[in-house]
């Protein structure tokens, strides 16, 4: 399992420190302001210590993480009804996973189907925005998102959040921010494949092995060659040159990639952003029976968690 750099331990032993603490002016050693360490969380309380005088600050909460002790607050946007069934199913799975993962790692997560949340007032309440399976189409919402990112906001996009066949209709997003341009091709059916880690220099990939197996996914190919874009750092790829390559990709004749190089996760170093192509489970559309889950891969999960914290730390 990859080493996570910020796992929250909820059962740390309490130190024998008086909760009333010392007054700052009488502290040993003396200091004007407390230098607080990280929050420790238990089911109904949180606490932290001053690194200098060991005074303790504590509070109560209902369920592991609250507004006071959160590391950050994330907003997921997308649809859970209508549209492609596998895409809506991914959003439902993601909502559950982010809620549970937030308890373990100390962040709060909200979800909305309303992209009207992309406005200056609402975005001030969130440290990270995620497009799970959709993107805004209203001009005002798009401009609000652009301002959010240009001013240091953080974003993660999954799978179809980058899909378009009209890239110039929102050129800032598809050509400049994502860099991918138009959707060009895809594989079918969703398949698990060997992923190549392009670099271990990014926090999201630092602890990953050189290659790992993905969960099943429908893989997208793009109009633009991201390797030629100096603003883009490709983090994960499907590459037929690696020793343990799983090419061909896909298993339906006519919708398979027999060879080549296909980026599946990247960042734009001008922004606090990550895009990853994952987000389409294997599903039998005639019965809507799902046979895979995106968040069953430890490596993919570690990539997302470490990526989230790297974006917050980069703000």
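Q: What amino acid sequence fits the structure above?
A:
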């Amino acid at each position: 399992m990859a080493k996570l750099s910020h796992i929250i331990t909820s059962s740390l032993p309490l130190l024998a420190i008086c909760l009333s603490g010392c007054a700052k002016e009488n502290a040993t050693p003396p200091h004007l302001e407390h230098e607080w360490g990280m929050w420790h969380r238990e089911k109904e309380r949180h606490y932290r210590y001053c690194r200098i005088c060991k005074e303790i600050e504590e509070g109560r909460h209902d369920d592991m993480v609250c507004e006071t002790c959160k590391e950050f607050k994330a907003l997921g946007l997308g649809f859970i009804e209508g549209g492609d069934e596998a895409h809506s199913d991914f959003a439902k799975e993601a909502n559950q996973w982010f809620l549970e993962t937030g308890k373990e790692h100390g962040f709060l997560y909200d979800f909305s189907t309303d992209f009207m949340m992309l406005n200056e007032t609402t975005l001030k309440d969130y440290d990270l925005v995620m497009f799970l399976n959709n993107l805004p189409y209203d001009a005002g919402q798009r401009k609000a998102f652009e301002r959010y990112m240009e001013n240091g906001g953080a974003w993660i996009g999954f799978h179809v959040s980058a899909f378009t066949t009209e890239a110039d209709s929102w050129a800032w997003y598809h050509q400049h921010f994502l860099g991918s341009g138009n959707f060009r091709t895809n594989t079918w059916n969703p398949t698990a494949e060997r992923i190549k880690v392009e670099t271990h220099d990014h926090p999201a990939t630092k602890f990953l092995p050189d290659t790992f197996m993905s969960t099943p996914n429908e893989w997208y190919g793009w109009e633009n060659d991201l390797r030629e874009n100096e603003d883009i750092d490709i983090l994960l790829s499907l590459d037929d040159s690696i020793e343990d390559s799983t090419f061909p990709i896909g298993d339906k004749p006519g919708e398979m990639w027999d060879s080549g190089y296909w980026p599946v996760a990247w960042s734009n170093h001008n922004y606090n952003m990550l895009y990853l192509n994952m987000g389409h489970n294997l599903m039998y559309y005639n019965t809507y029976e799902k046979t895979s889950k995106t968040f069953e891969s430890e490596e993919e999960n570690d990539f997302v968690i470490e990526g989230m914290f790297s974006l917050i730390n980069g703000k």
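Q: And what stands out in the fold?
A: The chain has a mean pLDDT of 91.
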